[in-house]
Specification:
The chain is α+β, with helices and mostly antiparallel strands. It has a four-stranded mixed beta sheet with strand order 7-8-9-10, sandwiched between helices. Strands 1-3-2 form a three-stranded antiparallel beta sheet. Strand 9, helix 10 and strand 10 form a beta-alpha-beta unit. Helix 5 runs antiparallel to helix 6, helix 6 packs across helix 8 and helix 7 runs antiparallel to helix 8. The chain is elongated.
């Protein structure tokens, strides 16, 4: 049986998204374009940018934004990150498009045009032109008001190896200082070992408090050859702090897994305590005071000075 091949695209059929200039190059006259718009065969979705099919998809929106913005345009921020599977990013209502600094296109409707002298080369991947992940993260972080949201974004892209702390730090240094405080703080926390927004907050609070030095996100090798990842470890005190999830708190499977980890760590001579992100956020002083008291008691128990 012969292998099936998809049909070649019809050269006479316009793409789903087409600009006025491109339609003219394809041989359409101004009258033909206007007739299609009047009859509803085509629909204007941005100035001089048309949809030639019935349904406007997310991919159509991306392509339309780039076509409207002009040559060398690239998507950035959430518009560039929404397709790579990050939990911290949702498809945005408005799309950020970076263009050369001398581009005179203005923002309109759901497209935000940002001229820049640091126009990045697009990622070498199929689909619409998108900025490299580190640049897109930095642009999104500067637009994000809440520190916890930036923490979650930075921690996720680094943990999932979509970009490195070094790449993000380079974007932080090269970009504008305005609105960069959250990104700077999140990078400091991730550099210290935080793999999530709650861990980042906990780490920052503990470093500012009077507690002994600790390590974050430590891989513990078990006697039988397995491994466990610990959120916070005080090695000299043989003490472990675990940040439990609010989202899954109370689910039987999650509770069983947490109890199993706790028993295993205690059997290895480690003292384990747990805190939930919601408690840390609502009661930061109580959190740090409690951890400091627990660690002081652990030091007395072990005779560590």
């Amino acid at each position: 049986m012969d292998d099936w091949l998809p049909p070649l695209p019809d050269p006479l059929r316009p793409p789903r998204v087409v600009t006025r200039r491109d339609a003219l190059r394809r041989g359409y006259t101004i009258d033909q374009i206007e007739r299609r718009l009047r009859t509803g065969a085509w629909r204007r979705i941005l100035p001089s940018t048309y949809l030639t099919v019935d349904t406007l998809t997310w991919l159509d929106r991306q392509r339309a934004a780039l076509a409207f913005a002009g040559d060398r345009a690239v998507l950035s921020g959430a518009a560039a990150l929404a397709g790579i599977g990050l939990r911290a990013v949702r498809r945005p209502d408005s799309l950020l498009v970076l263009v050369p600094h001398d581009n005179r296109t203005r923002s309109t409707a759901w497209v935000r045009i940002r001229p820049t002298r640091r126009l990045p080369s697009p990622e070498l991947e199929p689909g619409p032109a998108t900025a490299p992940v580190a640049r897109a993260v930095a642009d999104l972080a500067r637009e994000t008001r809440h520190l916890d949201d930036v923490r979650a974004l930075v921690a996720e892209v680094v943990r999932r190896e979509r970009c490195t702390v070094v790449e993000l730090a380079a974007e932080l240094a090269a970009g504008p200082r305005r609105a960069s405080a959250n990104l700077r703080m999140a990078l400091e926390e991730v550099s210290g070992g935080a793999w999530s927004a709650p861990e980042g907050l906990a780490g920052r609070l503990l470093r500012a408090a009077n507690v002994p030095p600790f390590r974050q996100n430590v891989t513990l090798r078990l006697p039988g050859g397995g491994r466990l990842h610990l959120d916070f470890l005080w090695l000299r005190l043989r003490a472990v702090l675990e940040i439990d999830s609010d989202e899954h708190h109370g689910l039987p499977a999650d509770a069983d897994a947490t109890d199993g980890r706790h028993i295993l760590l205690e059997s290895l001579g480690l003292s384990v305590t747990h805190r939930r992100p919601s408690f840390i956020a609502r009661h930061p002083q109580r959190f740090t005071d409690g951890i400091a008291a627990w660690l002081a008691g652990r030091a007395r128990e072990l005779g560590v000075t």
